[in-house]
């Protein structure tokens, strides 16, 4: 005579069969819970900044911080290019300024200012990333030295304008005492050459334009730098800009 068994009216499974089924699944559930709780693969764990936008990694474009530093570098490149123009024109003016003693100190200062900026501009341009992975701003030495550089250039711009104003009375003067001379290397006719003071005035006009461009580049540079204070960037944008290496592009 077989023992009587009771079946569940809902599932049609006896209690003995249900206990046996649950006991067979218990080890599997235990091992699965342990594997989830102790996952040895760190790649499965999301980073602390996983919810932030990393810009370049997702859409292939530079992040906001990288764009600021790239534009800053563009302004520095333009400033460095026109530095050679100012240096050459002012040195030529200084050579001709034997009759304009009042202009010599201003010309000399402009030559010195342009000369000492040829090398430092390289180091300014090489500072193309934030000071740390968590701070989007440039190093302190950069801000201090470029501030001094900016003041020096503004003073040089003032000297250039003063030389231009002081030499305006000589604009168009011709050296009649030397008589008619050949006007140019490839020209056959003769003319009166400009006096030294008139040449300085012409060079001062060129310098006013080039020094004006340098002033605009300096203002544009500081505008880009100011964005690192009043613009908001994500942690990933700052980190990527800090780790960015142009040589690996």
Structure description:
It contains 8 helices and 2 strands. It is mainly alpha-helical and 249 residues long. The protein has one domain (60-248). The chain has a two-stranded antiparallel ribbon. β1 and β2 form a beta hairpin. α3 (64-96) packs antiparallel against α4 (104-116), α3 packs antiparallel against α5 (120-126) and α3 (64-96) packs antiparallel against α7 (196-230). The protein starts with 14 loop residues before the first helix and ends in a 6-residue tail after the last helix. Mean pLDDT is 78; it is low at 1-6, 34-39 and 45-58.
Strand content: under 5%
Number of strands: 2
Give the overall shape, derived from the CA principal axes.
Answer: elongated
Largest sheet: 2 strands, antiparallel
Helix content: 55-70%
Mean pLDDT: 78
Distance between the termini: 85 Å
User: Over all CA atoms, what is the radius of gyration?
Assistant: 37 Å
**Pairing-aware structural class of the strands and helices?**
mainly alpha
Strand order, sheet with most strands: 1-2
Count every helix, treating DSSP H or I runs of 4 or more residues as helices: 8
Keywords: Membrane, Transmembrane, Transmembrane helix
Region (Disordered): 1-22, 35-60
Biased composition (Polar residues): 1-14
Protein name: MARVEL domain-containing protein
Q: What descriptive keywords fit this protein?
A:
249 residues; mainly alpha; two-stranded antiparallel sheet; 8 helices
